Amino acid sequence: MTMTVTLKVIADRVGKSVTTVSRALAGYDDVSEETREQVRQVALELGYEPNTIARQLQKQRTDTIALLMPPVYPRLSDPFFSEMLSGVIDYADQQGLDLLISPTNASDNPADIYLKYIRARRVDGFVIIRTQRQDPRIDLLREKDYPFAAFGRVEGDNDFCLIDSDDTLGIRFIVNHLVELGHTRLAFIAEPLIFTKPYHRLQGFIETLAAHNLPVDNSLIIEGGYRERFGRQATQQLLENAHPPTAIVACNDLLALGAMKTAEEYGLVVGRDISITGFDDILLSEYAHPPLTTINQPAHQIGTRMCRMLIKSINHEPLAERQIILQPELVVRQSTGPAP
């Protein structure tokens, strides 16, 4: 007959109280290192398996963090998001935590969804992506003092755990590069501007054109989508403009890849007849035809560092930096060339 190994069995074996054994296994400092080692050794010999649920209740922890997917983009098919998500998953796994990924519906109030998770104590904290300029999720989590870390900023006070790229500077690098190649008529394809990142990228575009004394033509700024399909539609509209651009700055690499496809269908050679740039440096950008000029963002590292910040916040550990702004890196490839 197999004996169930309990804390009392271990306590009887080492001659200590059940409380001492429990605290020794939990690693409390008020138990001597000698006793802790003795208890661990006996527990190992006896094959003791802790009651995970009971320990979570004792700690008032779930050992789970959550990423609630926005109702629209990104999806797992997006290369940048998938790589960033793998960074979150890898680090959470290293720390012994589970990651809950759950979709949300467009009809749901984002704050209400998060409030349900908070009230039920289903998770210990949240990973926030696709921050909006005015973000009700972040407003709620700050009000409730609930742990979270975000990829992106909001307008106003950003006194919370976040990691972000300097999107304005990244676009400045791109526009400077194109102007140096002789381009003076530049277009911009934007994701929805309620989100912080595309808004900052558009501001970088407008400000850098102004710095070069180049006019901003609103007919060459098109807002609305995230993926290749919208990049194709927007590029068709741009190329049928009475005065089409010689260069297109896309808000992300997928939009840029769609733009390149449409340009080719119009008989243009990308990099010679028209220049096209992206943002993110996903793997596909390097192997596009021609390879895409873009801004590099270390997606996996972003996910890892964001998860680390969140776990430190959950554990009330000091953070050297609560806001990390990564510096962009311009990657010049064959999709850009001298203005025709």
What separation lies between the terminal Cα atoms?
85 Å
Specify the number of helices. Answer: 13
Which class best fits the helix and strand makeup? alpha/beta
Major beta-sheet overview: 6 strands, parallel
Assess the beta-strand content as a share of residues: 5-15%
Biggest sheet strand order reads 2-1-3-4-5-11
Shape: elongated
Weakly predicted, low-confidence segments = none
Overall strand count: 12
Give the ordered list of helices and strands: HHHHEHEHEHEEHEHEHEHEHEHEE
Rg over CA atoms? 26 Å
Mean pLDDT: 90
Helix content: 40-55%
Polypeptide structure, described:
- By secondary structure, the chain is α/β, with parallel strands linked by helices.
- It has 13 helices and twelve strands.
- The strands form three sheets. The chain has a six-stranded parallel β-sheet, sandwiched between helices.
- Strand 3, helix 7 and strand 4 form a beta-alpha-beta unit.
- Helix 1 packs across helix 2 and helix 8 packs parallel to helix 9.
- The mean pLDDT is 90.
